[in-house]
Design goal:
25 helices; 686 residues; single chain; alpha/beta; OB fold (Dihydrolipoamide Acetyltransferase, E2P); binds ligand ME8; five-stranded antiparallel β-sheet; Isoleucyl-tRNA Synthetase, Domain 1
């Protein structure tokens, strides 16, 4: 059943505008759905808005409108955004819908009937922004352990869901993988949490404190806790025709079990969620389902956070990037590509617009867009704009690229969502994308090596063969990238007239503007800092990067010799033998190159084998001892600095034609250096 995917995003609070954390999660869910469909599976994609609770009530109060008016005005900021990011949910749910209110009331009533909800008078520490009670043990120095804000002591009668009864059953579900938590370290976190006795869950709020919520059907003085309400949205979407509950008919489970939507999609669900809402999804939600007699969800995919300068991007901190601005500047495909390629699902990633520009220019504009443009251009010039026939024998590099393409395709076709987007313990979407982009890099390498623009004058068949197969390779890459960049992928297939994935000789190609225009990134200008003459430890103004690449400049600024970045101390006396004049320095050919491929060297812990485009006819093979600090896929597509005029050297039986420039970090680990923005391959570093 793994080729049937019900995929969900968190439903977003309508207390503010959407930000890129929301956009990321929705794009991720959309792409997972598209990967499933690409592999012949079926998907149902749900997203929506979380419209009850204190946060929304407070946001409405701030605007001076009723909560109902507030949510009615603001939910469409989310709903209307998704299609413009090429996200196509099958259902957009609002928790204020009658259907959802009915489901929540049925769930409450049923659990009450079953004796799994009971009222107690309770005293505890309450966090107003998070709308939850904490025990004495849980609070940290009088503050909420979750958000760090002050908590207040409150006594209240409330309704409790007897969640503790399901502790062992939940542990079993996590341990056996019945409910997979991806990445695996998050499963361990949940199991760690479950080592302590599980508390019962307060699932009501007295109306005297919070009126904006779903009324408890058995006690009209209360509304439901917003998380109890919100989590059930995942089920509401599967019970479209459920009548409102009445005294005689208020069970949920028996109706759900009879719903064809439920039968089709539950529990083949993958919930995408941020790591901050893991407990609600991994503990509250499955125990609620178990109590209702329903299976736990199949999988939780927990994402990391987008950080700005290493701080979480969040509405309360006010360092939020507006997804609308990103979309309008770069277009939805670039945004999707950046999000999905840059972030390893589950880990945090730093957001910077500069990184978006780098990904756009290096991967999309150069490797993919320019590749297509070049091939169509060559066909226009030499073959009347038609796809030439592949009559010759492919060269070695071409055969290698074709084999690689075939392998990618067969992995893709043979596997379902599980292997393409996910392993049992890890979402590997960013790796899948990197693997596909490696095909475009190989195809670029083929054009450089086979040089059909030259051979067409001497061996027309050879040029035709190269161009035909490279076009087929581009089509394969476009198909495999369709879940990530749907519009560009469709446009590539249209221009090559290969909507069915097959490139046919004689077909007229369509020309068009560049698929991904390049963007300029202007690095913020830094002013040189005058070194103070006080204690040496304060003098860390030159970075190791500057020291290695431009020793002269570093010295000129300080006038006091080189600074050891680890100790902060200056080497006070420059030994004359360490000084080089500018002519000697410029005999080093330091060049910028683009990493086309990167792979570990068998039997070597330290070495990576790189092929680097230094603007020469053929890319160079360079071996570099950085395997312990850099993942190969993180180097591919990046520009690096190389000393290009060293004599060739044999390492592990392979020839290395140049050396990568690295700086050592404070732990002595090697970190490759990259230009601050894209420059042409092969340019000299001066
Ligand atoms: O939590 N980077 O809604 P929400 C990545 N209504 N993701 C981020 C992020 C960031 N900087 N900031 C927030 C809610 N998110 C509930 C969900 S589901 C039944 C109810 C993610 O609008 C965050 O981790 O506050 C969460 O997964 C999602 O945005 C929704 O946040």
């Amino acid at each position: 059943m793994s080729n049937r995917l019900y995929v969900t995003t968190p439903i977003y609070y309508v207390n503010d505008k959407p930000h890129i954390g929301h956009a990321y999660c929705t794009i991720l869910a959309d792409a997972l759905g598209r990967y499933t469909r690409l592999n012949g599976g079926e998907t149902y994609f749900l997203t929506g808005t979380d419209e009850h609770g204190q946060k929304v009530q407070q946001a409405a109060e701030k605007r001076g409108v009723s909560p109902k008016q507030h949510v009615d005005e603001l939910f469409s900021a989310f709903k209307d955004l998704w299609p413009t990011l090429e996200c196509a949910p099958d259902r957009f749910i609002r928790t204020t819908e009658h259907a959802h209110v009915g489901v929540v009331q049925r769930a409450l009533w049923q659990l009450h009937d079953q004796g799994l909800i009971e009222d107690r008078t309770f005293e505890g520490w309450y966090c107003v922004p998070d709308e939850r009670f904490w025990t004495e043990k849980e609070i940290v120095e009088g503050k909420c352990p979750d958000c760090g804000r002050p908590v207040t002591r409150l006594q209240e009668r409330n309704w409790f869901f007897l969640m503790s009864r399901f502790q062992q059953r939940l542990i079993d579900a996590v341990q056996t993988g019945e409910m997979a938590i991806v990445p695996a370290n998050r499963a361990n976190e949940v199991l760690g949490f479950l080592r302590e006795p599980l508390q019962d869950l307060c699932i009501s709020r007295p109306k005297s404190r919070l009126s904006w919520g779903i009324e408890l059907p058995f006690d009209r003085d209360f509304v439901a806790y917003v998380w109890f309400d919100a989590l059930l949205n995942y089920i509401t979407a599967l019970a479209p025709d459920l009548p409102p509950p009445t005294q005689d008919d208020h069970q949920l489970t028996k109706h759900l079990l009879a719903s064809p939507m439920y039968q089709k999609w539950w529990p083949h669900v993958t919930h995408c969620l941020g790591k901050d809402i893991l407990t609600t999804h991994a503990v509250y939600w499955p125990t609620m389902l178990l109590a209702l007699g329903l299976p736990v969800p199949r999988r939780l995919v927990t994402t990391g956070w987008w950080l700005m300068d290493d701080a979480k991007m969040s509405k309360s901190i006010g360092n939020v990037v507006d997804p609308l601005v990103l979309r309008d500047t770069y277009g939805p495909d670039v945004m999707r590509y950046f999000f999905l390629r840059e972030m390893a699902v589950g880990q945090d990633a730093n957001f910077s617009e500069e990184a978006v520009v780098r990904r756009n220019n290096a991967d999309l504009a150069n490797d993919l867009g320019n590749l297509l443009q070049r091939v169509i251009g060559m066909c226009t010039r030499s073959f009347d704009g038609k796809i030439p026939e592949a009559a010759g024998t492919p060269s070695f590099v071409l055969a290698d690229a074709l084999l690689y393409a075939q392998r990618l395709q067969s992995v893709d076709a043979a596997s379902d969502f599980e292997t393409v987007a996910m392993t049992a313990s890890q979402a590997r979407l960013n790796r899948t994308i990197a693997d596909t982009m490696a095909l475009t890099q190989k195809l670029n390498g083929v054009l450089t090596a086979d040089a059909p623009f030259k051979t067409v004058l001497t061996d027309r068949d050879a040029a035709a063969t190269t161009l035909h197969h490279v076009l087929q390779g581009i089509v394969i890459a476009a198909q495999l990238l369709a879940p990530v960049i749907p519009a560009a992928s469709a446009e590539i297939l249209r221009r090559v007239r290969a909507e069915d994935g097959v490139v046919r000789a004689g077909v007229q190609l369509l020309e068009g503007p560049p698929l991904f225009p390049k963007h300029e990134w202007k690095a913020p200008v830094t002013t040189p800092v005058e070194l103070p003459v006080s204690t040496p430890t304060e003098l860390r103004v030159t970075t190791p990067t500057e020291l290695k690449v431009q020793p002269g400049a570093a010295e000129a600024t300080s006038g006091r010799g080189l600074q050891d970045f680890r100790t902060g101390e200056f080497r006070s006396e420059q030994e004359p033998s360490n000084l080089v004049d500018i002519d000697t320095f410029s005999r080093n050919q330091l060049r910028v190159g683009l990493v086309l491929t990167a792979e570990p060297v068998p039997k070597s812990k330290k070495l990576l084998r790189l092929t680097i485009n230094l603007g020469e006819e053929t890319p160079r093979q360079i071996l570099s001892g950085i395997a312990e600090t850099v993942a190969p896929e993180d180097l591919i597509g990046k520009q690096v600095l190389v000393i290009a005029n060293l004599p060739p050297r044999l390492m592990m039986g392979m020839e290395s034609r140049g050396m990568l420039l690295v700086a050592e970090d404070a732990d002595g680990k090697r970190v490759p250096l990259h230009p601050a923005r894209d420059v042409p391959n092969g340019v000299l570093v001066k």
